[in-house]
Design goal:
By secondary structure, the protein is mainly alpha-helical. The chain has six domains: 5-172, Rossmann fold (3-Layer(aba) Sandwich), CATH 3.40.50; 177-265; 266-421; 425-527, Serine Threonine Protein Phosphatase 5, Tetratricopeptide repeat, CATH 1.25.40.10; 547-659, Serine Threonine Protein Phosphatase 5, Tetratricopeptide repeat; 673-755, Alpha Horseshoe (Serine Threonine Protein Phosphatase 5, Tetratricopeptide repeat). Helix content is 64%, strand content 5%. The chain contains 34 helices and eight strands. The chain has a six-stranded parallel β-sheet with strand order 1-3-4-5-2-6, with helices on both faces. Strands 7-8 form a two-stranded antiparallel ribbon. Strand 7 and strand 8 (339-340) form a beta hairpin. Helix 4 (85-98) crosses helix 5, helix 6 (177-187) packs parallel to helix 8 and helix 13 packs antiparallel against helix 16 (355-372). The longest helix is centred in the middle third of the chain and has 19 residues, at 423-441.
Length: 755
């Protein structure tokens, strides 16, 4: 690694930025290790302007971050947009890769956990900035902390400090008089004659940074002096709304109106207002330029020019006009966050729009997002920006995007979460879509059913098969009621439900559903169709789970023969079925057939995919289990040791697969009666799982039970019984009295107590 490291997409310092020597920049030198600085809008400003800020917290954070970077006082500077949990998770995952600590194939949520652990342990000084935190719940379980680190949060939620570790609240108010004059002086340095009346103007605007930025832009662009600008706003403010030195909502509305009038005069004239209305529907923290120059955006603008077409170059020119007049900022270096607009400006333009204008802008924004969002994978930052824009659009448009049906961009946003492996946010998203779809469209509407099905898939991915079963049952029932039992959609839903039944420990239900489903799919699609083959594979897995070895291996042999003929013996899908058949034969006790096939699978995987491929390592783990079942402990232990070493080297010591491999080796030692080797390994596994997954995770509870069993085998009853008792209490508290792990722990505890 080459240090220092910068991670994230930090906004640029706005043009003519003035250091806030008197009202904030000193914070950079007063941040203490282990501390979280929460930058909130000063109370007196918040009371006037509401929750949208306008005091320049983000720009102050940018300046502080820049100062730390220039002084080389940090080895890691991490900037994360905290508008949503998905954005935070991806920001952390990217940072983990940037510091060179990412393991292979780690999903964003797992990578985020690894990054937080890295921050907690590293001795390198770091600064993490979480910008624009709208809801402290976004950071539940995701607060960065560590003795070498500093955290800065910008937010309009003062209650954020209640949840932050070691918080220090820093109220960010308006500019001081000197800072206001310094800003206007820098902004108007090219035309010193325009400086006349600067102090009076700054006072009239309440020294509010966002208002001063707009005023300075108009003064420079229109070549009027500050006194003339002050005269223009004096006649526009609502009676009693303005007060010298006081921040009032009308001040921002007035400066925005003057900026917009000037922008509307610049060629192509007459398009500034609708263009700003379009941006007001999207994420203030950055809109991809491709959205605002899309065909949908151009068609929307052309409506305000009497139907005369607006091309991409003109749409781009309008955005630059808005920037010249202080209404937006443009960063041409990033396609993901090209155009930024302050939330106060957005709120003002939305308030000034009629209901019809608002609806038209919202629908145009939805179409523009969809056009800019290709179906193929895109860079994570671009994907995230589109999701953030869609989230803001949902807030602004409400039920409009569900009339007369769900707008496709809402579906695309959820699919983006799924493809990015953001499982937790995906569950939240699809649950919300389901909850909205039921009253808006009806429970049986295709979009409602689709959202429920994606929710079920997200539950599956999260390891929550019981919740997935509930959703799949509803989906299957709706498809059957609306389309009939033999429709492909119904059969696909039943196949998914059978899979969820098996994962939930209900193999009997899975078999009863899968058998007629396979027959139905074969009739509709044909026996060789991928969906039919997948359903047959799932039926085989259900047979295995139910202990019906002959039925399972019979199906797997047929599938393997089909795959070898259609795809060839070296195709990954063929190898997967071969591995399933080998495992099935091993489970059936047919070791004379299983071991050669397991060994062949290892050889094939390593030859085709490489010894470090996860599938190759898993094949070696299955072979080790086969050796153990065949009472060949020496071969089993050698294989398990190699699997563990490979997992640690390839995936890291804390990866879930590595933790499982460590447990397999401990179990092998235990079965080989090598308790002197097993006990320390079991103890380490418990400590590792508590540290990595938490004390209440089911895997942690199971690891404690395994350690207690090893103590019992080693005749250490005084250690085994208390550990069994504690584990049983935790299982009952966390999992419930009837959970399989709770029941097994209870039985083991009672058996140990009687012995």
């Amino acid at each position: 690694m080459s240090w220092p490291v910068f991670s994230g997409l930090m906004p640029s310092v706005t043009g003519f930025y003035t250091p806030r020597i008197e009202t904030g920049l000193a914070l950079a030198g007063s941040l203490h290790p282990g501390e979280t600085a929460v930058l909130v809008t000063a109370d007196e400003v918040a009371r006037s302007l509401g929750p949208l800020g306008g005091t320049g917290k983000t720009q102050l954070a940018v300046a502080i971050a820049g100062a730390c970077w220039e002084r080389r006082s940090v080895d890691l500077l991490c900037w994360v947009s905290a508008t949503g949990r998905d954005s935070v998770l991806l920001g952390y995952a990217r940072a983990l890769a940037d510091v060179g600590a990412a393991g292979p194939a780690a999903g964003p949520e797992e990578a985020a956990e690894q990054f937080l652990r890295w921050l907690a342990r590293t001795g390198r000084p770091w600064l993490a900035i979480l910008d624009d935190l709208a809801d402290p719940a976004v950071l539940a379980g995701l607060w960065p902390h560590g003795p070498a680190g500093r955290v800065m949060v910008t937010t309009n939620r003062p209650d954020t400090a209640l949840r932050a570790p070691s918080p220090r609240v820093m109220e960010v108010g308006v500019f001081s008089r000197r800072e206001s004059l310094n800003y206007l002086s820098a902004r108007l340095s090219a035309e010193p004659d325009l400086w006349s009346g600067a102090l009076d103007l700054a006072t009239e605007l309440g020294f509010l940074p966002v208002a001063l930025a707009q005023a300075g832009a108009v003064v420079a662009e229109a070549a009027i002096d500050c006194r003339e600008y002050q005269n223009r706003i004096a006649g526009r403010q609502l009676p009693g709304a303005a007060g010298r030195g006081a921040v009032q909502p009308a001040v921002v509305a007035t400066t925005s109106a003057l900026s917009l009038e000037l922008a509307d005069l610049l060629p192509p004239a007459g398009l500034a207002r609708p263009a700003l209305a379009l941006t007001s529907m999207l994420d203030p923290n950055g809109i991809p330029g491709a959205v605002l120059t899309s065909r949908a955006a151009c068609m929307y603008l052309s409506r305000y020019r009497g139907g005369v077409p607006v091309d991409e170059a003109e749409a781009r020119a309008v955005m630059h006009n808005l920037a010249r007049c202080g209404l937006v900022t443009i960063d041409t270096t990033t396609p993901a966050r090209t155009v930024r607009v302050h939330a106060l400006v957005q709120a003002g333009i939305r308030q000034a729009m009629t209901s019809a204008e608002s609806d038209y802008a919202a629908l145009a924004a939805a179409d523009a997002l969809l056009q800019a969002w290709p179906p193929h994978p895109v860079p994570a930052a671009f994907d995230q920006a589109l999701r953030d824009c869609t989230a803001r659009l949902r807030q602004a448009a409400g039920a409009l995007l569900w009339t007369p049906q769900c707008h496709p961009v809402l579906i695309r946003a959820g699919q983006s979460l799924d493809s990015s492996e953001l499982i937790g946010p995906a569950i939240t998203y699809w649950q919300a879509m389901t909850d909205i779809g039921r009253p808006a469209l009806g429970a049986a509407h295709a979009h409602t059913v689709y959202a429920r099905n994606r929710l079920a898939e997200a539950y599956e991915a999260a390891g929550r098969p019981g919740d997935a079963v509930v959703m799949y049952e509803l989906t299957a029932a709706e498809w059957e009621r609306g389309l009939g039992p033999g429709h492909p959609n119904t059969l696909a839903a039943r196949s998914s439900l059978a899979r969820a039944y098996r994962a939930a420990g209900r193999p009997g239900d899975a078999i009863r559903l899968a058998e007629p489903t396979v027959a139905g799919l074969a009739q509709v699609h044909g026996p060789g169709h991928p969906e039919t083959q997948a359903a047959r594979s799932e039926l085989a897995q259900a047979y295995l789970a139910a202990g019906l070895w002959a039925e399972a291996t019979g199906i797997l042999r047929e599938i393997l023969a089909d795959r070898e003929q259609a795809l060839g013996p070296d195709h990954p899908d063929t190898l997967a079925v071969q591995a399933d058949l080998a495992d099935g034969l091993r489970a059936a006790g047919q070791l004379d057939q299983a071991l050669p096939l397991l060994e062949r699978t290892v050889t094939d995987r390593e030859r085709i995919q490489g010894r470090d491929h996860p599938a190759a390592i898993s094949a070696r783990a299955s072979l080790a289990a086969g050796y153990l079942a065949a009472d060949r402990p020496r071969d089993a232990l050698a294989s398990y040791k190699r699997v563990l070493a490979d997992r640690e080297r390839v995936q890291g010591p804390d990866h879930p697969d590595t933790l499982a491999a460590r447990g397999d080796l401990a179990d092998a030692y235990h079965r080989a009666h090598k308790l002197r080797d097993a006990l320390p390994l079991y103890q380490r596994i418990v400590a590792d799982r508590e540290r990595v997954q938490g004390p209440d995770h089911p895997d942690t509870l199971a690891a404690r039970g395994d350690l207690a069993a090893a103590y019992q085998s080693a005749r250490k009853r005084s250690a085994a019984l208390p550990l069994y008792e504690r584990t049983l209490a935790d299982c009952e508290r966390v999992l419930g009295h009837d959970h399989p792990l709770t029941r097994a722990t209870r039985e083991n505890f009672l058996a140990a107590a009687r012995s």
